[in-house]
Amino acid sequence: MKRTDPKAIGEIINGIISDCNLENAYAEQKACFLWPQIVGQGINRLTTRRFVANGVMHVFLTSAPLKNELRFTAPKLVEAINSAVGTNILSDIVFH
């Protein structure tokens, strides 16, 4: 068995993700994971569920006034999440 140079675990994981063509799925999950950091804990407490499907993030909120207010800031949120993820994975956010 041939020995190779040691690799960092992040490098190994990134290699597996690219070998399995899971870059988009990883970026979508990362966008959902970064939601609390982007909007803050106050808004995140009122978020019950979030997921990304076909480039659109679906966010379920418990507050109707907050849902209405966030609709106006959706383009800025999309831009902030895309820059945090490092790729243009989102095209829109829909609030439910």
What does this structure look like?
By secondary structure, the chain is an alpha+beta fold. It has one domain. The protein contains five helices and three strands; from the N terminus they run αααββααβ. It has helices at residues 9-19, 23-39, 41-45, 64-72, 74-85; strands at residues 47-53, 56-61, 92-95. Strands 1-2-3 form a three-stranded mixed sheet. Helix 2 (23-39) crosses helix 5 (74-85). It is elongated, with a radius of gyration of 17 Å. The termini are far apart. The mean pLDDT is 91.
Essential attributes:
three-stranded mixed beta sheet; alpha+beta; 96 residues; single chain; elongated; 56% helix
Net shape: elongated
Mean pLDDT: 91
Amount of helix: 55-70%
Distance between the first and last residues' Cα: 55 Å
The low-confidence runs, each spanning 5 or more residues with pLDDT under 50, are none
Domains, number: 1
Radius of gyration: 17 Å
Query: Which series of helices and strands comes N to C?
Result: HHHEEHHE
Strand order of the largest sheet: 1-2-3
Decide which structural class fits the backbone: alpha+beta
By DSSP (H or I, 4+ residues per run), the number of helices equals 5
Number of strand segments: 3
What is the beta-strand fraction?
15-25%
Which sheet architecture does the biggest sheet show?
Answer: 3 strands, mixed
